[in-house]
Specification:
heterodimer, A: alpha+beta, 2 domains, six-stranded antiparallel sheet, 10 strands, 22% strand, B: mainly alpha, two-stranded antiparallel ribbon, 59% helix, 2% strand, globular
């Protein structure tokens, strides 16, 4: 008589011929269950450590970027580096999303129709097709006062996508620096956007005049005002692309709402 | 005990899984650009192979023939995921450099090969020993290939400078080709040639000898 004693049932199962249907099903189920239990336990136990590793990596990348930004080391040393926060913002509303994406990738967000907005031809001055709805920005505060905002920007250049970080000072109008992190422009010409010499032209430039009109551009030849950056000789298209990149991302389809929110003291 | 010593030592040279059976070549090419990655990969494979052999051997009398491969792969895959998670948690930088190759231990013929040919027919003790021997045989080859590639490709061993390179003001001109996958094939080929010259018993009989063909 088949009892309900588990030990007896277990013995009965083991005694079944290996090729019987019952034992085949039971073995498949048991192995799968035990294995999934082991994997889940390992994942739960190790996840905090893995997350900490990933966070440390993000921080290291950011630190490397800040080390490249001219004149920033001083600002950071004065403010205390612990106050640098990473925030994911919603570009449609200019607010913080609250949730932290794991391994946030702007290019991925921009490619997914669910997390990006299609741009019409006249909106799309940077030639990027779709604008991501979310961006990962970095905010530096000292004593509750905004000191620095670092915004990722990108645009279609002459023959590559130019990616950069635009750092703005606390007034959100003065450029603290521009660092090109990725480009494949013509070597010796357009590729000079990634040189420290050209990037050193940016700190101190102003985005908009006192009427709030965005004016910062890369001009042909020498820039003469605080709204003009010297163009690169022989790389007009690349210079224009950087100009358009700044215009787009500081404009209404870029970070304008976010900058308004920051000015109002939100975030 | 002679049997277990034999079981442990033969896979190191005489029946080395990489140089004799030519198993696990893919990862042997990919992770041997530096000794650190080669050593980590070896440790990962050793852990997986020993645990898999032990578990599969313990279950061998109750594995229905019809689904035995699926059960073996399930066990191996679970062990690999756990190993990968452990590496991500405690050796994050190295696990990024190894990228997908730790996960690909699942498809390493070496692991399933030992499960099918040995662990399914032997008790757990000898199976674990067999797994350890084979894993060390694989590791030995990985370390040799990694040693040659890192030394000649970068002038370093485990990241420490051994031959100061020209770029750092030394005399050694690194051989860039050593860091590319084809160099691993060349080193592996030379290694197999050396072992077979030393142990002619490993030379395979030519199954399809070329015959002289009449002209015309």
């Amino acid at each position: 008589m088949p009892g309900l004693n588990p030990v007896a049932l277990w013995r009965q199962l083991l005694a079944l011929p290996n090729e019987s249907r019952g034992k085949t099903l039971a073995m498949a189920f048991l192995v799968a269950a035990v294995c999934s239990l082991m994997v889940s336990m390992a994942a739960v136990v190790l996840q905090p450590q893995i997350d900490a590793n990933k966070a440390a990596e993000r921080q290291a990348k950011l630190d490397a970027m800040i080390a490249e930004l001219p004149e920033l080391a001083g600002v950071l040393a004065g403010a205390g580096a612990d106050t640098l926060q990473t925030v994911i913002v919603d570009l449609k509303t200019g607010t913080e999303t609250g949730e932290l994406f794991d391994g946030f990738d702007m290019a991925e967000v921009a490619a997914d129709p669910e997390t990006s907005t299609e741009l019409s031809d006249d909106q799309d001055i940077a030639g990027i097709g779709r604008r991501p709805d979310y961006a990962e920005i970095h905010v530096l505060k000292a004593g509750g006062k905004l000191e620095l905002v670092i915004l990722p920007v990108y645009a279609a250049g002459y023959q590559s996508t130019i990616r950069a970080f635009l750092a703005l000072r606390g007034d959100l109008n003065t450029v603290a620096g521009l660092v090109v992190t990725e480009q494949g422009e013509t070597p010796g010409l357009g590729a000079n956007v990634a040189t420290p010499a050209w990037q050193a032209l940016w700190p101190g430039k102003k985005l908009a005049d006192e009427n709030g009109v965005l004016r910062l551009t890369v001009v042909r030849g020498r820039g003469t005002t605080e709204f003009e950056v010297d163009g690169i000789t022989g790389a007009t298209r690349t210079s224009t692309a950087v100009s358009d990149m700044i215009a787009f991302w500081t404009g209404p389809n870029g970070y304008a709402k976010l900058l308004d929110a920051l000015r109002a003291g939100e975030l | 005990m002679a049997g277990s010593r034999h079981r442990f030592f033969t896979p190191l040279i005489d029946e080395n899984p990489v140089t004799l059976q030519i198993l696990g070549i893919c990862s042997a090419l990919a992770v041997t650009t530096s000794m650190t990655t080669a050593l980590t990969m070896s440790a990962a494979l050793t852990a997986v192979l020993m645990a898999a052999s032990g578990l599969i051997s313990a279950l061998r009398n109750h594995m229905p023939k019809s689904i035995r491969l699926i059960l073996q792969i399930t066990i191996i895959a679970s062990l690999v995921i756990i190993t990968d998670l452990v590496l991500q948690a405690y050796a994050f930088d190295i696990s990024k450099r190894l990228s997908i190759f730790v996960s690909l231990v699942v498809t390493n013929c070496l692991v399933l090969g030992r499960a099918e040919t040995f662990a399914m027919h032997n008790p757990p003790g000898p199976s674990i020993l067999d797994g350890l021997g084979n894993a060390l045989g694989y590791s030995l080859i990985l370390m040799i290939v990694g040693f040659v590639r890192e030394l000649l490709g970068r002038g370093t061993l485990f990241g420490f400078t051994v031959l100061p390179s020209v770029e750092d003001g030394g005399w050694f001109q690194p051989l860039g080709v050593m860091l590319l996958a084809p160099s691993a094939f060349v080193i592996l080929g030379l290694l197999i040639w050396a072992i077979r010259a030393w142990r002619p018993a490993q030379v395979e009989a030519n199954e399809y000898p070329l015959t002289a063909r009449a002209e015309g």
